[in-house]
Amino acid sequence: MDSILVFKQKNTATRSRGDEEMNTRRLVGTGAWVGGIVGFVLMGAIGFGHELGHAASTNIMTVDGQMVPDIGPLPTAIPQPATNLNYAAKISLGRQLYFDGRLSKNNAISCAFCHNPVAGFADPNQTSVGVVGKRGGRQAPTVYNTAFNPFQFWDGRAGSLEEQAIGPIHNPIEMAETHENVVKKLSQIKGYQDQFQATFGTGVSIQGIGEAIAAYERTVISTNSAFDKFVLGEPQPWTNLPRGVWQFLKAKGAALPAIMVQILPIIIFITPECRRSAQWKKI
Questions:
Q1: Helical (H) or strand (E) element with 178
Q2: Same domain, residue pair 230 and 263
Q3: Is 105 a domain residue?
């Protein structure tokens, strides 16, 4: 029988300035999310922001004479659905599944293939590549802070991380496998048999796969960037950071209706590319 392959995540703390710039160029792609967020507002999900505490704060600060929403820090508690509470064994299993290419038809495309930790848990390519070189129509979004998203995917078609985690498996362009075949493959691996039994009290199941991957993804949180420290009130050497926030809000909000501008703080709050861009941008 096969054994579980364990992949060690590379340390992203030593990324080069070029990598930072690449990620910031990728910020342009967040415009698609801003457009998609319209549906988020129309469905009344604006109230979700208030559940995030400071993230949707109506407090205003003034920067260069302009009114800017006062964006607060991330919540200290990671959201957990009552049906899928996080604990160490489940997170460990989810991490192994996240990096396992055997979730795909050709046994080569893992979750990490398109949501690469080295690239900010996203894809540095303009559009993501799936099995046998097939390209999707969009760039894979980052996994960072998706624990705080009420909907998943660019178009919001998944209502939870659990649903999102198993979606790409049977997508014909991404992993092109069936849920049944994935369960069959992993059920032949003793390591997975033992872990699923210990974690869920059952054999390998597609529900367990989704719950384990979601549990791991909820640990991928950005809390230590310059922006995070800034909103916590810690002194930062980047004196232009508040102006960077305003420039982003102005650029993204100029063509949007007023209600959209109100939720831009949530977009910055959730999306690490937005949070990270203010670290070095000069204005």
A1: none
A2: yes
A3: yes
Identify whether 174 is a catalytic site residue.
yes
User: Are 159 and 51 found together in one domain?
Assistant: no
Q: What is the CA radius of gyration of the chain?
A: 20
Average pLDDT, 10 consecutive residues per value, the chain (283 residues): 38 40 37 37 35 42 56 76 91 96 94 88 84 82 85 82 91 93 97 97 97 94 77 68 64 45 45 43 31
Tell me how far apart the alpha carbons of residues 194 and 183 are, in angstroms, rounded to a whole number: 14
Alpha carbons 254 and 107: distance in angstroms, whole number: 45
Name residue 46's amino acid. I
Claim to verify: residue 115 and residue 191 sit in the same structural domain? yes
Domain membership flag for residue 282: no
d(CA 262, CA 46): 9
Q: Please report the pLDDT score of residue 116 as a whole number.
A: 87
Domain that holds residue 96: 88-217
Measured in degrees and rounded to the nearest 5, phi and psi for residue 272 equal -65, -30
Classify residue 80: in a domain, yes or no: no
Tokens of 82: 């009552």
Which pLDDT belongs to residue 251?
55
| Vertex 147: Cα angle to 16 and 139 (nearest 5) | 55
pLDDT of 137: 80
**Which of these, 82, 96, 97, lies nearest to 166 by C-alpha position?**
97
Please answer whether residues 164 and 153 qualify as being in contact, where contact means their C-beta atoms are separated by less than 8 angstroms: yes
CA-to-CA separations, 238 to 8, 19, 179, in angstroms, rounded: 33, 19, 48
Quote the pLDDT of residue 237.
Answer: 66
Marked catalytic residue, from 162, 174, 177, 273: 174
pLDDT at site 209: 98
Give yes or no: residues 199 and 234 share one domain: no
Select from 199, 217, 235 the last residue of a domain: 217
